[in-house]
């Protein structure tokens, strides 16, 4: 399993363990090419117990580990995850692995409910729940960490509203539109905001280990498998 790019290895960003943010990265070539030549430091040898499909899922799952590490998760936190897609699944899995006291996912998708529950969530509630106290009851108190994993405008503000005073908000949805964040709302919470992207080489390698140990079944994240010839049309549809 390989990372999508390698850093130059010598700049400050690379020395800090952020090779994907390197300004002169070495790209490995298209993932659908016949051959590619990734650097050894950017790859993980898959044990025979893992399939290529498992290997493909190391990449998105590693994002969750990096995000929670950046937010300084120590264990015992109440974690609220907004969304139930791939990034939400990664956060849920690693929050459980890192010792969260409670994990609740708030999602519009009933179809993804079983995925996040299987990966470690204690409960799933509606993102637009009519009961405003539902999240707090499910968590057993206000959220110490809120991970926004949807990427639609307005949800970062929602995350700030849900987090406790002094809590941490992680932006994982990669929203590409202006976000109407209200600074005063953040200030009155003294909320800490994090904007992680990707992972380090060490975190990428670390993610493969629980797969091999049988503690994770990431393939449950996969909602559909398509033939290669349908790939261009699928990208257009997305």
Describe this structure in words.
This protein is of the alpha/beta class. Helix content is 34%, strand content 16%. The protein has nine helices and eight strands. A six-stranded parallel sheet has the order 5-4-3-6-7-8, with helices on both faces. Helix 2 (52-70) packs across helix 3. The longest helix is centred in the first third of the chain and has 19 residues, at 52-70. It is globular, with a radius of gyration of 18 Å.
Give a topology summary.
Elements: E1 5-6, H1 12-15, E2 26-27, H2 52-70, E3 78-82, H3 86-97, E4 102-107, H4 113-118, E5 123-126, H5 134-139, E6 143-148, H6 155-162, E7 163-171, H7 183-189, E8 192-194, H8 201-212, H9 231-237
Parallel strand pairs: 3-4, 3-6, 4-5, 6-7, 7-8
Antiparallel strand pairs: 1-2
Helix pairs in contact: 2-3, 2-8
How would you sum up this structure in a few lines?
The protein is of the alpha/beta class. The protein has helices spanning 12-15, 52-70, 86-97, 113-118, 134-139, 155-162, 183-189, 201-212, 231-237; strands at 5-6, 26-27, 78-82, 102-107, 123-126, 143-148, 163-171, 192-194.
List the main descriptive attributes of the protein structure presented here.
238 residues; alpha/beta; 16% strand
Distance between the termini: 25 Å
Poorly predicted runs of 5 or more residues:
none
Q: Main sheet?
A: 6 strands, parallel
* Average residue pLDDT: 88
Report the count of strand segments: 8
Structural class: alpha/beta
Approximate shape: globular
Order of strands in the sheet with the most strands? 5-4-3-6-7-8
Query: Number of helical segments?
Result: 9
Helical residue percent band: 25-40%
Give the H and E element order. EHEHEHEHEHEHEHEHH
């Amino acid at each position: 399993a390989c990372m999508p790019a390698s850093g130059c290895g010598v700049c400050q960003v690379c020395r800090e363990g952020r090779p994907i943010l390197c300004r002169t990265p070495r790209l490995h070539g298209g993932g659908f090419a016949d051959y590619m030549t990734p650097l050894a430091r950017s790859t993980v040898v898959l044990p025979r117990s893992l399939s290529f499909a498992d290997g493909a899922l190391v990449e998105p799952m590693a994002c969750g580990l990096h995000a929670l590490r950046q937010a300084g998760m120590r264990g015992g936190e109440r974690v609220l995850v907004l969304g139930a897609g791939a990034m939400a699944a990664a956060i849920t899995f690693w929050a459980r692995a890192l010792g969260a006291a409670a994990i609740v996912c708030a999602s519009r998708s009933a179809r993804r409910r079983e995925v996040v529950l299987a990966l470690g969530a204690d409960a799933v509630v509606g993102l637009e729940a009519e009961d405003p106290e539902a999240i707090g009851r499910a968590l057993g108190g206000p959220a110490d960490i809120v991970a926004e994993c949807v990427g639609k405008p307005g949800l970062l503000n929602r995350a700030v509203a849900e987090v406790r005073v002094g809590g941490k908000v992680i932006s994982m949805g990669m929203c590409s539109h202006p976000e109407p964040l209200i600074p005063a709302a953040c200030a009155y919470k003294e909320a800490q905001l994090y904007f992680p992207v990707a992972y380090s080489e060490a975190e990428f390698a670390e993610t493969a280990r629980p797969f091999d140990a049988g503690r994770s079944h990431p393939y449950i994240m996969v909602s559909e498998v398509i033939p290669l010839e349908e790939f261009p049309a699928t990208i257009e549809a997305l």
